[in-house]
Amino acid sequence: MQCVYLLLFFFAITYSAKAQQLQIDSNELFIDYGNILLGTPTKRLLTVRNIGEAPLVLTTLKGNCGCLDYGIIDQVIMPNQTGKIYIEYRWQSIGVFTKYFTLSTNSKGEAMTRIKIKGQVTTRPYFFWNVLS
Fold this sequence. Notes:
- It is a single chain.
- The chain is mainly beta and 133 residues long.
- The protein has one domain (29-123): Immunoglobulins (Immunoglobulin-like), CATH 2.60.40.
- It is 12% helix and 47% strand.
- The protein has one helix and nine strands; from the N terminus they run αβββββββββ.
- The strands form two sheets. Strands 2-9-8-4-6 form a five-stranded mixed beta sheet, with no helix packed on it. The chain has a four-stranded antiparallel beta sheet with strand order 1-3-7-5, with no helix packed on it.
- A hairpin with a 6-residue loop joins β8 (95-105) and β9 (112-122).
- The longest helix is centred in the first third of the chain and has 16 residues, at 2-17.
- It is elongated and about 50 Å long.
- It starts with a helix and ends in an 11-residue tail after the last strand.
- The relative contact order is 0.24.
């Protein structure tokens, strides 16, 4: 009987070691839109990879203001597979912006990942001679 308990104990330890792990390309954790002409779409698809050995569940994606649109396209990502989320800045006014998204998962490593976007909304195209005027 003790042997059965011992086997169950080792199974539980082995299973918990094979946890879900999230990987987002470091280029996608910070997005610099640069100068955006008013009216230009800003929607981006980001790739999320599960580098663990158990299914990764994307639970929530939140933005820090009402001018952000976002969504989870693939809720559950199987091991060694990729999924998609989308983010979008809906410009309300002209000027510089810095916004944040927070992605929550069931990952054992980093359960929350922060994505930062920044840029500047302008009314005319930006050319190098704009600096001179």
